[in-house]
Design a protein that fits this description.
Elements (H helix, E strand, L loop, with lengths): L1 H18 L1 H23 L18 E6 L2 E2 L2 H4 L5 H5 L2 H30 L4 H29 L1 H25 L5 H12 L2 H12 L5 H30 L3 H21 L5 E2 L2 E6 L2
Antiparallel strand pairs: 1-4, 2-3
Length: about 280
């Protein structure tokens, strides 16, 4: 996603500058058809074993022993979580709310950032480059945040990510107040790095809490909730601007829901169910 953002956003802006947004939209659709469809047909695999991958890296004839894995709530972790069972727990609702909130914040920025930068006097290609670069930075940090969360815990890692997002948005607010164009670069770094914490933590927290035969359904619902949050964020950012002729209120809302998201991940409390540690492989007896 980050690499695609890095390549396609400036390319899209270039197409729009040449031919307008309607024709650019058609060109992107054609590129999807002639590039992504064949690539998916050639390289998509439906099972990890097709690529020689195994659950937790454990091959036949081996078993896994975790260093540092501590199951805190045995009754919870051993429950075969179905959607019906999960639906009755407060942790399920906390799990749904924390991605919903941050999706609002993320999409306020994603949808409106280029327009905001252009309105502050930054040329369109530079604005597109800043947006694209934040996506590329997020890709690198997805790996980092996942690695870190296996060592210090999901909640602490997610909190650090939210601090980065909030710092990035604060730079946007300062940019509108001061007009100092150099502030776009710390925005790019902080927002991009914090954005990278979202997807890995959504998956990891959900898996820590609701392993079982219903996990796929539970996570699918969570992804749907994220989509709704993204739609709300895109709309509300534009609505606030239309009413106030400023993005300050939208940015303040983004910071508020990012803080709220952080509170709900602590309420979901995956640390009170299990802690992910390092694994080593041992031969089966």
């Amino acid at each position: 996603m980050g690499l695609g953002t890095f390549i396609l956003v400036p390319l899209s802006q270039h197409f729009i500058a040449l031919w307008g947004w309607r024709f650019a939209f058609v060109v992107l659709g054609v590129l999807v058809l002639i590039l992504l469809l064949p690539l998916n047909a050639l390289f998509l695999r439906h099972k990890p074993r097709d690529l020689g991958l195994y659950p937790d890296g454990v091959r036949d004839g081996e078993s896994a022993q975790w260093r540092g894995l501590e199951v805190i709530d045995t009754a919870w972790s051993e429950t075969d979580w179905t959607l019906k069972r999960a639906f009755r727990t407060w942790r399920f609702w906390a799990l749904m709310i924390f991605p919903f909130c941050i999706a609002i914040a993320i999409y306020i920025i994603l949808v409106h950032s280029v327009r905001f930068l252009v309105d502050t006097g930054i040329d369109k290609m530079t604005a597109a480059f800043i947006f694209a670069s934040s996506g590329m930075i997020s890709s690198v940090f997805r790996i980092f945040w996942g690695w870190l969360s296996d060592r210090i815990g999901r909640e602490k890692t997610y909190t650090l990510g939210m601090i980065c997002i909030i710092m990035g948005i604060l730079y946007f607010i300062l940019l509108e107040i001061t007009g100092e164009r150099g502030l776009i670069y710390p925005f790019m770094i902080f927002f991009g790095s914090g954005w990278g914490a979202t997807a890995p933590m959504f998956m990891a927290v959900a898996a820590d809490l609701f392993q079982g035969r219903g996990f796929g359904l539970i996570y699918g619902i969570l992804e749907g909730i994220i989509g709704i949050g993204g739609a709300v964020g895109a709309w509300v950012g534009g609505f606030i601007f239309d009413k106030t002729q400023s993005y300050q209120g939208a940015f303040a809302l983004a910071i508020s829901v990012a803080i709220l998201s952080c509170l709900f991940v602590w309420m979901a409390a995956p640390r009170k169910v299990r802690y992910a540690g390092r694994m080593r492989l041992i031969e089966k007896d």
